[in-house]
Design a protein that fits this description.
Layout (H helix, E strand, L loop, with lengths): L14 E2 L10 E3 L12 E5 L7 E8 L2 E4 L18 E4 L3 H13 L6 E4 L4 E4 L7 E4 L6 E4 L113 E6 L2 E5 L29 E6 L6 E7 L6 E8 L17 E4 L6 E6 L4 E5 L2 E9 L3 E9 L9 E4 L2 E5 L4 E4 L3 E3 L5 H5 L11 E5 L4 E6 L9 E6 L4 E6 L4 E3 L8 E3 L5 E3 L17 E4 L3 E2 L7 E7 L2 E2 L9 E9 L17 E7 L5 E7 L1 E8 L7 E2 L3 E6 L4
Antiparallel strand pairs: 1-6, 2-5, 3-4, 3-6, 4-5, 7-8, 9-10, 11-12, 13-14, 14-15, 15-16, 17-18, 18-19, 19-20, 21-22, 22-23, 23-24, 25-26, 26-27, 27-28, 29-30, 30-31, 32-39, 33-39, 34-38, 34-41, 35-40, 36-37, 36-39
């Protein structure tokens, strides 16, 4: 329909209905109209933010509003409203859409804006020499040439004709007599292009010097007469000019295909990124041309696909129309596309440049956001729709991350290893308390930080980090955080990759033996296919006897453990007590006396009590096993201690 001017006011005050209205009323009385527009129609909203919210196009006379058109505008429904209901002028989607329509109608320099039968219309710029005129139906303007019928008889005088513009076709046969031409006065400038016909030129008289550069067009050349010698070696010939021959069976010109298994100058093709390989082994031959996709980034430091919204996200990549990698730039494709990367009003492709840090290290998808790590800060990317699409928010600064794969998500919380501490993000960035911090970061090879990787073992509430120890160039160590019990443990294990058991019965890891192994399955090490015993132990910290002043004498222990799940006939562990004179003194060395440096007792299934002799002010308890088919769980063992003097 035709567009009408609407009124707006920047200081219109909210007011209320002076009396209630039904869903059919077309007159509305308000209590005040301070700052409200008048004259042209404008939109108001009644009961905003409620189930009865309604928008209406009205005109105003004092405090009386008259409905223009029907009730329930801008995708709202007509409703009844009580006296005292809130009402105020509002800017609607109709206003915005008409403004957008006006802005988007003109697309090219020189376009003209007109009004069609019901909407804005675009008149594209014409070509040189055309004039603006009314179309044959007298309904709209258009560009074109002035027809002969549009020129009145005798309207074109000699003064109106530019010198040299009359061509042979403009002159009637016999119109110019010899008497009209002064002998020897016709020069090149007197002849318009094309005025000299073939019949006027003596055969064989035109030489190369007579022809101006560019004077010979394609239409002037007889088909099939140009040979290889006629083409200059440096001539730029478009691919479209080359004979191509037939495409191999299964391929169609103009179709987008995806390169797969690229090896040098050869590759396979498929119709989708992960689709079936197309058989192109037909006998067809010829030179084929390939058109590159427009501005698809070819460089990036990290890539992922957003979860439900399905955007391809690149972190540290090239900007539009650039081949230079920007390490702080985030770009995303159009939704559900791997090839549409140029932003437009018709897609959601876009980019954002982060400001804190010098490079983006990695990113990880969480429940409602993508968490992005730079080398000094943490950002959140959240999908908000057009026009911004993905908004960024700084979550934390002055943090670090050890490597691109050093972060993992467990129970909705992001855990990661920094260069000197561990962190977590559960809505806010926190440093993790870590009993093993000095052990880990004093024995790690950060020259191999790109080999560091994190994984989860959700069945046991664990996050694992694998890394190279100080003197190693291959992964040989791990540290584990149990987030349910807030405890840490560590060990030695060579793994190159890890995936949790979300889709499988057990966590799966890759080894340096080029195989995949299940973890948490069975009770022995079966990495090579031959079961081997796992050496396992639990060792306490140093604990005092009494207040640490007196020696204590341990003479018996009551074990508390179970061997449930063991496959060995007689599973057993070794319980070791270490006695010390004091912190830092080392273990007792009174081996020649009745109290040995350590007392080691073998604990078998159903062992009720063991007797030992160990003396010290401080002690350490260790329980270990190294037998095949042995698994055990420790309870609360007890030791019987009695005072044994101060020396």
């Amino acid at each position: 329909m035709a567009k009408t001017r609407r009124a707006y006011s920047g200081n219109a005050a909210s007011t209320t209905l002076a009396s209630g209205i039904s869903s059919a009323d077309t007159t509305i009385t308000i209590t005040a109209a301070t700052g409200w527009p008048s004259g042209n129609p404008f939109y108001v909203v009644i009961d905003p933010g409620t189930a009865s919210e309604e928008k209406v196009l009205v005109t105003r006379s004092s405090t009386t509003l008259t409905v223009s058109g029907s009730r329930g505008a801008d995708d709202t429904s007509a409703a009844s409203h009580s006296a005292g209901a809130t009402i105020y002028p509002v800017f609607t989607a109709v206003d915005a859409n008409e403004a957008n329509l006006l802005a988007s109608t003109l697309t090219t320099q020189g376009d003209l804006l007109t009004h069609g039968a019901s909407d804005f219309a675009r008149v594209a710029i014409g070509t040189a020499g055309q004039v603006l005129k009314v179309n044959s139906g007298a309904t709209a303007p258009e560009w074109g040439q002035v027809a002969t019928a549009g020129i009145a008889d005798s309207a074109v005088t000699s003064a109106k004709i530019a010198d040299g513009t009359i061509v042979a076709g403009d002159i009637a046969d016999g119109a110019i007599t010899s008497a009209k031409i002064l002998d020897g006065t016709i020069a090149t400038g007197d002849l318009a292009d094309g005025a000299v016909t073939s019949a006027k030129i003596a055969d064989g008289t035109i030489v190369a010097g007579d022809i101006a550069d560019g004077a010979v067009t394609s239409a002037k050349i007889l088909d099939g007469t140009i040979v290889d010698g006629d083409i200059n070696a440096s001539a730029a010939i478009a691919l479209s000019k080359l004979a191509t021959g037939a495409l191999p069976t299964g391929l169609t010109a103009g179709t987008t295909y995806y390169l797969r298994n690229v090896d040098g100058v050869t590759a396979n093709l498929s119709a989708t990124p992960a689709g079936a390989i197309i058989n192109t082994s037909g006998t067809q031959s010829g030179t084929q041309s390939i058109s590159e996709l427009v501005d698809v980034p070819t460089l990036q430091n990290y890539i992922l696909v957003s979860d439900t919204s399905r955007f391809v996200m690149l972190f540290g990549t090239t900007d539009y129309a650039s081949a230079v990698l920007d390490p702080m730039l985030v770009r995303w494709s159009n939704q559900e596309s791997v090839v549409d990367w140029v932003p437009s009003s018709l897609n959601q492709a876009g980019s954002a440049r982060l400001s804190h840090g010098s490079e983006i290290v990695t990113a990880i998808q969480t429940r409602q956001e993508i968490v992005v790590f730079t080398d000094s800060s943490l950002y959140s990317l959240q999908y908000v729709g057009a026009p911004v699409v993905w908004s960024s928010q700084l979550l934390g600064d002055n943090i670090s991350i050890a490597g691109q794969n050093a972060a993992a998500i467990a129970s909705g919380v992001v855990f990661w290893m920094g260069v000197d501490k561990f962190y977590r993000y559960d809505g806010r960035v926190q440093t993790l308390r870590c009993d093993l911090r000095r052990h880990v970061f004093s024995n790690i090879n950060f020259n191999q930080n790109q080999q560091i990787f994190a994984g989860t073992n959700e069945g046991f509430n664990e996050v694992w980090w694998f890394y190279c120890s100080a003197d190693a160039t291959a992964v040989d160590s791990y540290v584990v955080y149990n987030y349910a019990e807030d405890i840490w443990y560590y060990g030695s294990l060579a793994r190159t990759a890890w995936i949790d058991s979300g889709l499988r019965d057990y966590p799966v890891a890759a080894t340096y033996s080029y195989n995949l192994v299940n973890h948490e399955e069975g009770i022995d090490d079966n990495q090579t296919g031959t079961p081997a015993a796992i050496t396992a132990y639990i060792e306490s910290a140093e604990f005092d006897i009494d207040d640490g002043e007196h020696f204590g004498f341990v003479w018996r222990m009551v074990p508390d453990l179970t061997f449930q799940g063991s496959t060995a006939g007689t599973p057993q562990v070794t319980m070791t007590m270490y006695g010390m004179n004091g912190s830092g003194s080392g273990f007792n060395t009174e081996a020649a006396k009745a109290v040995a440096r350590t007392s080691t007792i073998t604990i078998e299934q159903f062992t009720n009590i063991v007797y030992t002799r160990i003396r010290g002010r401080q002690m350490i308890m260790k329980i270990s096993s190294d037998g095949l088919g042995t698994t055990w769980q420790l309870g609360a063992p007890r030791i019987d201690i009695r005072p044994d003097g101060r020396r």
